Amino acid sequence: MIDFVGAGPGAPDLITKRGAELLAKADLVIYAGSLVNPALLGLTKPGCRILNSAGMTLPQVVEELSRAEAAGLRSVRLHTGDPSLYGAIREQLDELAGRGISCRVTPGVSSFCAAAASLGAEYTLPAVSQTVIITRMAGRTPVPPGQDIASLAAHGATMVIFLSAGMLPRLTEELLKGAYTPDTPAALVYKASWPEEKLLRCTLSDLAKTGKQAGVSRTALVLVGDFLKESGYEKSCLYDPAFTTGYRKGEPCGSN
Ligand code: SAH
User: Per the confidence metrics, is the pTM higher than 0.70?
Assistant: First the structure.
């Protein structure tokens, strides 16, 4: 059994308890060195073999994990944030399954959750947005047809854009083809939950300039949408004194 573990966004105490326990028991840890906080490796036991996957290929990673499994050792494949987002885990799981090796995934706190937490923001504000679009600009990894930024921006929903902080001028252009305007609020969140975290609030019109001035071009998320406005949302029905829920009686304020 090989454990794929979400390391969380960076702060070492934002890994799950289960993830930390698996790290502590591991004989081999292969971690995504470009983004996982190395402080997490301090949770491993003495003698644990530690490999940085940044310099490895998929066949090398699979080979190391398979060999450890054959030797009866416990392995953890440590991915940043939550492994289900831009983690490239599926190809590893499939290769290992093809070798008859079973795997288990332990979720992690994604950077998009840490970014909202640091901003004190809520992505899904009533009357503003009830939808979060998680996406990226096409880079060396292409984006399938119909999923380009301009098409997704047509909804005017909350957008969380990964892997795109190095392309802010082009990203802004694409976003403006949708429902957003130059005044739409945006934020660039660099290394959410790390000591060097930067929270840069701006509008779409000055997003590129903001990134350039702060020297932020990687390890950052771009957040876009009116959920970042200082006011203009409606209060939830859930906590409205007039609203009846399964737990409390009141007068309905509308449907949820
Ligand atoms: N699985 C990860 C995402 C990996 S893709 C997750 O759930 O967060 C790598 C991209 O994630 C980076 O280019 C950046 O856009 C974003 N990212 C990862 N960690 C971050 C952090 N602490 N703060 C801001 N963005 C981060």
Answer: yes
